[in-house]
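Why do we care about 3D structure at all? Because function follows from shape, and shape follows, mostly, from sequence. That is the central idea of this module. The next example makes it concrete: a single protein chain, its amino acid sequence, and then its structure expressed as tokens.
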Amino acid sequence: MLRSIITGQTLPVGEFEEGWQELVLKRQLMIGEKLDAAGLSSEYLVEMLEKLENKELTEDIKAAIFHLQTSTTYVHYNKGFLDGIKFAMMAEKI
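And the structure:
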């Protein structure tokens, strides 16, 4: 069972907010799977970077990867949040 992001209470299965949070969580998993499938997982990239001899360049690339992945995840999460608001409006829940 999911707990409400807003109230902290347990959400009954089938309620609108439960469905919305489930959608957001699935989007998060999907972006992680896409990164892994494309060979862009953090672990893989860090492992590859450790093979470079230029440690300053390695740290710069690690920082760029981190910022790119966090930005992508944030945008993906935001899209799920906005979709939830649109769905709520259509269902006349807000």
